[in-house]
Write a structure and sequence with these properties.
heterodimer, A: alpha/beta, FAD/NAD(P)-binding domain, five-stranded parallel sheet, 16 helices, 32 strands, 28% helix, B: alpha/beta, Rossmann fold, four-stranded parallel sheet, 44% helix, globular
Chain lengths: 612, 142
């Protein structure tokens, strides 16, 4: 029915039989209500005379008893037939769209979406929580399967985003409030004080040199604590913006107020350091929002038998990324915490993935990055490298070839989940990896110097708060929920809000960039239309029936109901979002909701139960 | 004859969470009892207590309201309004002799297709044990 001939058939029937109500009993209204309303409108009938009955998702697909399912279908259609007689012609509300776009998250997904939008001439606010953009990709050394250097392909994009005339970049900032609706969002952004004035700092980093701390002492988050930084720092050399940050938790001036402030002295000319900087709050108007808030690396300490945090030579994969990186804490040398070079390395796949005690889902990227790390470790150290895997998942362009290449390089693959990691106990500092080799059908023990845990990808810890802020949903594992897994993969159920990258689910860089392009295109399509049509499902008051009891006033979450001097409630239809809670509460029945009139719902109930 | 009794449940599912969860149950081809018929409302807060009374008056054996989890309402707090009304209405229904098991409010998010299945199946099972609600329905199955 939803195809062209089906729609034409509906139009033809409207003409031939002079029809004035149309019901389609097929799939979910979330899928094709819009399609059929348009078909009805094309045939000259008001689209809101149309109603859709969900016989597929709610009936045919979920029941096995054919007779019972058919009875249910009859009830549902009967209910709709009785409902539509109360339908009235309506007009969709049209509202103008703000042409600006907000992109939340400055990883590769956010950067790419922002650049695409900005290149199309749209003004973009790119908001990032950390002091620099770049996200997780900036921490990676090489990227699979091509082995091109992550920084070499990312940093030009970071610089482009930082200097683009259409991008307002707010780092060290967080969205604190979102109001409004598609095309007309009012967003509040809190800009944390970095105690350095962004406009004045040129990134010369002399203040870092001059800091009274001669040695860097604070564990450096960018290098996952493998390196050290000073209280005044820049997250990494290619950070964008090139502006230093002062960490008030470790800076002596903040702790005691008695520092010599050598940083201020050295910056006397520019005077960019301001210990009294306060959080700034900015409010912006945007028409569309792209969420690209990324992922959290699974905390390996949650699998205690792998000994992360207990044995110093158990590392996470991200830590190894920093160790193999030439600009990392060891300048690219792979050395153990005690300074030894590893002669044998065990890479444990699926840590925090495909495991019913942690996460059941596959994190999609770990197999490939494990292969990449195996290659890099072998290349740099010549060590014996073992990969312990459940299945090697290499389903991408040139992935399988890369797997074969790594296997040919002599990396050993052991099919089995590692059950235990423990010290060899003979004083040589080695660790024993115990795993059942499921191909040999026996338990094997591997002495290694270094264990690498291929940790999975998880939703951000505050993903639930963020999704509430933006009024979108989550799938069961906590990643943001797309509107349709196949046909609307970057849309959400909140119109005008799009998702890109790992906040929607684990994915690699190519997929992330493809998705951020799609999200940007969707945002462009929305704002270039200039106006947006809103469902006319708002509530309104029949003034003559209103007794002025004010029951409805405190119920409205949008303060859309006011009490006017004639002692009657009045609803501002621009503010009303059509939840209908005031309609349900009105004792005199004087509040009505378009598309969900009391009569319509009563008829549906009666229709469903006509044969009860 | 109690085995042959098939309870009829009228459900009110909010557009953003439970209705979508039921859609997901469909696309995932989960199977559950065919005794439930859903009416779509934009929010569980739209469920007027009169809708529930109407359903019982017209012979429903049970009424199920499905909304978003607390804190997740698409309209911020409509589900809390639904909860308030539900608690009051349940007491009233109780005084009218309608057992608690016949009137349920469940929070089912858009990702919980599995929960639609378990809630509906559980409710059907309990209503089967309870038997038909109206005397007319009792005669029908007797």
């Amino acid at each position: 029915m939803c195809s062209d001939p089906g729609q034409e058939l509906i139009g033809q029937d409207i003409h031939d039989h002079n029809l004035n109500r149309i019901i389609v009993a097929a799939c979910s209204p979330h899928l094709h209500e819009h399609t059929f309303r348009q078909a009805v409108a094309t045939a000259g009938l008001n689209p809101y005379y149309f109603h859709m009955v969900n016989l597929r998702e709610h009936d045919a697909w979920v029941h096995t008893d054919q007779k019972a399912a058919t009875d249910k279908a009859m009830d549902l259609v009967r209910a709709a037939v009785r409902r539509v007689k109360w339908h009235v012609p309506l007009e969709p509300r049209q509202v103008p769209i703000h042409a600006e776009v907000l992109v939340v998250g400055g990883g590769i997904a956010g950067i790419d979406a922002a650049l695409t939008l900005a290149n199309a001439g749209k003004h973009v606010y790119l908001v990032e929580r950390e002091p620099t953009i770049g996200g997780h990709m900036a921490q990676f050394d090489k990227t699979f399967p091509t082995l091109d250097c992550a920084a070499c392909i990312l940093t030009p994009k970071m610089t482009a985003a930082g200097s683009h005339r259409n991008i307002t970049l707010w780092t060290y900032s967080e969205v604190t409030q979102v109001e409004g609706y598609v095309g007309n969002f009012t967003v509040t952004v809190g800009r944390k004080p970095r105690y350095v004035l962004e406009d004045l700092c040129v990134g010369c980093m002399e203040c870092i040199q001059a800091c009274v701390y001669k040695q860097a002492k604070v564990p450096d988050a960018f290098n996952l604590g493998l390196g050290k930084r000073k209280p005044v720092y820049i997250p990494f050399p290619q950070a964008v913006p090139q502006v230093v940050v002062i960490d008030p938790d470790t800076c002596i001036e903040f702790k005691s107020g008695k520092c010599k402030k050598t940083c201020v002295e050295v910056c006397a000319e520019r005077n960019a350091i301001d210990f009294h900087q306060q959080e700034e709050v900015r409010t912006i108007q945007v028409g569309a929002i792209v969420l690209a808030t990324g992922f959290e690396v699974f905390d390996a300490a949650r699998v205690p038998y792998y000994g992360y945090g207990l044995y110093p030579n158990v590392y996470t994969a991200l830590e190894i990324e920093r160790l193999v990186n030439a600009s990392g804490p060891t300048s690219g040398e792979i050395v153990l915490r005690d300074g030894r070079k590893p002669a044998a390395v065990g890479i444990v796949h699926c840590v925090g993935s495909r495991d019913e005690h942690t996460n059941r889902y596959c994190s999609r990227v770990c197999c490939m990055y494990s292969l990449k790390l195996a290659h890099l470790v072998k290349e740099k150290t010549g060590a014996e490298v073992y990969n312990f895997y459940i299945d090697v998942r290499a389903p991408g362009k040139s992935f399988e070839e890369f797997y074969n290449r790594v296997a040919e390089e002599g990396v050993v693959f052991v099919r089995g989940k590692v059950a235990d990691v423990y010290p060899a106990g003979n004083g040589d500092g080695r660790l024993i990896l115990q795993a059942e080799d499921t191909l040999l059908g026996m338990v094997r023990k591997f002495p290694v110097d270094m264990v690498v845990l291929s940790t999975g990808l998880e939703p951000r810890r505050d993903a639930a708060d963020v999704r509430r802020l933006f009024n979108i949903g989550c799938s069961s594992e906590g990643f943001f929920l797309e509107r349709h897994p196949k046909l609307a993969p970057v849309n959400t159920f909140a119109d005008g809000i799009f998702v890109a990258g790992c906040c929607q689910g684990p994915k690699d860089i190519p997929d992330t960039v493809a998705q951020s392009g799609a999200a940007a295109a969707q945002a462009l399509a929305l704002i270039d239309a200039g106006v947006v049509e809103l469902e006319p499902n708002t509530a309104h008051v029949i003034a003559d029936d209103c007794s002025g009891c004010k029951t409805c006033l405190p119920l409205c979450p949008y303060s859309a109901i006011s009490f006017v001097e004639a002692k009657r409630a009045q609803i501002n239809e621009v503010l009303c979002k059509g939840c209908g809670t005031c309609v349900a509460a009105c004792p005199s029945g004087s509040i009505r909701q378009n598309l969900f009139e009391d009569e319509e719902i009563f008829e549906e109930i009666d229709g469903l139960l006509a044969h009860a | 004859m109690a085995e042959s009794f098939e309870p009829k449940i009228v459900a009110f599912f909010c557009n953003w969470c439970t209705y979508l969860a039921a859609d997901l149950a469909g696309t995932s081809r989960l199977k559950y009892a065919p005794n439930v018929r859903a009416v779509r409302v934009m929010c569980s807060g739209r469920v007027d207590p009169q809708f529930v009374l109407e359903a019982f008056a017209r012979g429903a054996d049970g009424v199920l309201i499905g909304g978003c989890h607390p804190g997740d309402c698409h309209y911020q707090e409509g589900n809390y309004k639904a909860l308030r009304r539900y608690e009051l209405l349940r007491r009233m229904l109780n005084q009218m002799g309608i057992e608690n098991e016949r009137f349920r409010l469940e929070w089912i998010s858009a990702a919980e297709g599995e929960r639609v299945k378990s809630v509906v199946n559980d409710m059907v099972e309990k209503l089967r044990a309870l038997g038909p609600r109206t005397s007319a329905r009792r005669k029908e199955v007797a």
